[in-house]
Specification:
Elements lengths: L1 H5 L7 E2 H11 L9 E6 L2 E6 H15 L3 E3 L4 E4 L6
């Protein structure tokens, strides 16, 4: 949430790559690129740092709580409180 607020996601949608960059700046010790997640996507093996998967999982949890909304593919925005 802090990373998204810093990026201005309360005003405009923010790209997922920008969220990744903000997380790397805010918590560099949590962004271990050597801990790799391996999956098969459309018949090919894909490797990516596990922390990126964790960021996407956190965004999905925040969406279920109604705190963020997906604004197209790879774009997220904070949801405004109705009485704020």
């Amino acid at each position: 949430m802090e990373a998204m607020k810093n990026l201005g996601a309360d005003v405009k949608p923010v790209a997922l790559k920008d969220i990744y960059n903000a997380v790397e700046r805010l918590a560099p010790s949590m962004c271990d690129n050597s801990n790799v997640y391996v999956l098969t996507y459309k018949g090919r093996v894909v490797r990516e740092p596990r922390w990126r998967r964790n960021v996407r999982d956190a965004l999905l949890k925040l969406r279920r709580r109604g705190l963020v909304a997906s604004k197209g593919r790879g774009s997220w925005m904070l949801v405004k409180a109705p009485f704020a």
